[in-house]
Amino acid sequence: MSEIRVRLHFTGLIDINDLTSGDFINLPESSTLSNLFSKIGIREEHKKYIIAMINEKKEFMHYVLKDNDEVKLFLPVGGG
Q1: Do the domain assignments include residue 43?
Q2: Which of 66, 67, 69, 70 is within CB 3.0–4.6 Å of 4 for a Cys-Cys bond?
Q3: Number of Cβ atoms within 10 Å of the Cβ of 76
Q4: Distance between CA atoms of residues 73 and 21, nearest Å
Q5: Residues with Cβ < 8 Å from 31, sequence gap 6 or more?
Q6: Is residue 45 domain-resident?
Q7: Is residue 7 part of a domain?
Q8: How many domains would you assign to the chain?
C-alpha cells in the first residue's frame, strides 16, 4: 500500500506526544483527517473540539488527505 506524507502544525494548546509542530507524518494512502487524529493520539471524544485547516481551508473528519497537505490544528479558546 502506498503512503502519503503530510506536514502537521499545531498550537501550544494542543499537546501531541513525541511531535513538534512542523513535523511530517506518514500515513497510508486514502487516510482521512480522522485517521490522522487517531494516529497522533487524539481520542475520539476530543476530535470534535479541534479545528483543522488543510491548505488554508477548514475541513472535516471525512476529508481524505493528499500527499504534501499542510494540516494546521487549532483548539478554539473562548472567554468573556
Answers
A1: yes
A2: 67
A3: 8
A4: 10
A5: 4, 39, 64, 65
A6: yes
A7: yes
A8: 1
Which residue is it, cell 513538534? 20
Nearest 5°: phi and psi at 49?
Answer: -95, -10
Give the E-state strand segments of the chain in sequence order.
3-10, 24-28, 51-54, 57-59, 70-74
Range(s) of the domain holding residue 22: 3-74
- What's the burial of 31, exposed, middle or buried (CB within 10 Å: 0-12/13-18/19+)? buried
**For residue 64, which phi and psi values (nearest 5 degrees)?**
-90, 120
Q: What is the model's pTM?
A: 0.90
For 18, the grid coordinates are 513525541
